[in-house]
Specification:
Distance between the termini: 36 Å
Order of helices and strands: EEHHHHHHHEEHHHHH
Number of strands: 4
Strand content: 5-15%
Helix content: 55-70%
Radius of gyration: 19 Å
Number of helices: 12
Oligomer: single chain
Length: about 300
């Protein structure tokens, strides 16, 4: 049941890839994220080169996010105005990120930077999410009242120019902070193969202070556009997108995302955030450990890198 991946130059079990796509798609629909932060490390563990894993799984992120947005938009839970602004920033960030990714590949440092990025970003974000949600769960279990939370939005949201109205999110703020978040997500999409949802969702909740009901759907909408542009750029500029791998992951992801979106309403918000924080933290730690574990083959030429 193995199939050869021409760009990755390895053989893998194709039913396993379809199942992996479905599982990560389920996580994507459940938590409102692209799922790339989970997919890329698993592909690396399966023996696929990190540069190919990062670029190829981006199409899965697009498919699973699209599936999720269709469901959330039917519930009126997507702010397309906010998502479009962030996606515009994401497109510019993707352009810069792909060029940076190409430069790192030429230096032979792309794999190292990918692993370090996962360790730093996922480790820190996972710890913060786990601490915040874990504290809330403990207070609820003990019957304690939650401390008063300052709901005032940061002053810079109003002090900056170019203010815009976002009725569905309940905001009238400067367009610069959402645009900047989109740019940052675009760079992450190119370097780490992620949609940036694991960073955008907390930022939209705690910095922009958007209405919680539209955060997940809006995040997925932004991820679709940013990651689709990243995939096209990676294929044309770096030739690291394996179409066979992408197709298998995409097939399972569409189905899994629909199922995950249905289950999301059955859990409390803090429980979902705690589970997501734990997953993010574990993935970041596992990717970081790869930097300190002796590889089975010390001298290995990465696919697509010319011998000099």
């Amino acid at each position: 049941m193995d199939i050869y991946l021409p760009i990755a130059e390895v053989s893998v079990n194709w039913p396993l890839l379809v199942l992996l796509g479905a599982l990560v798609g389920f996580v994507s629909g459940l938590f409102g994220i692209g799922g790339g932060f989970l997919m890329a490390p698993v592909l690396v563990f399966m023996g696929i080169p990190p540069t190919v894993a990062v670029a190829s799984q981006a199409s899965h992120v697009v498919a699973s996010s699209t599936s999720g947005v269709i469901r959330y938009s039917g519930q009126g839970a997507v702010d397309f105005r906010m998502g479009g602004l962030m996606a515009f920033g994401g497109a510019l960030g993707a352009l810069a990120g792909v060029e940076l990714f190409r430069y790192l590949r030429l230096l032979g440092q792309a794999d190292l930077v990918v692993s370090l990025s996962y360790l730093l970003f996922l480790g820190s974000i996972g710890l913060m999410m786990l601490y915040e949600s874990g504290s809330e769960i403990l207070r609820r279990h003990r019957g304690e009242t939650a401390p008063h939370r300052d709901r005032r939005r940061p002053l810079f949201l109003y002090g900056l120019p170019l203010r815009m109205k976002f009725p569905k999110s309940g905001l009238y703020i400067s367009a610069i902070p959402p645009f900047a978040l989109g740019v940052f997500a675009g760079v992450l999409s190119a370097i780490m193969g992620v949609g940036g949802g694991f960073i955008l969702v907390p930022a939209m909740l705690y910095i922009l202070r958007m209405r919680a009901g539209v955060v997940v759907g809006t995040s997925l909408f932004q991820i679709i556009i940013t990651t689709a542009i990243t995939t096209i750029l990676q294929a044309g500029r770096n030739q690291t997108v394996d179409i066979v791998l992408s197709s298998l992951l995409l097939f399972g992801g569409v189905v899994g995302a629909q199922v995950g979106a249905r289950f999301s309403s059955r859990f409390r918000g803090e429980v979902l955030r705690a589970a997501l924080g734990l997953i993010v933290l574990l993935v970041g730690i596992q990717m970081g450990l790869e930097l300190f574990v002796r590889p089975s083959e010390i001298f290995l030429l990465a696919p697509g890198v010319a011998d000099r």
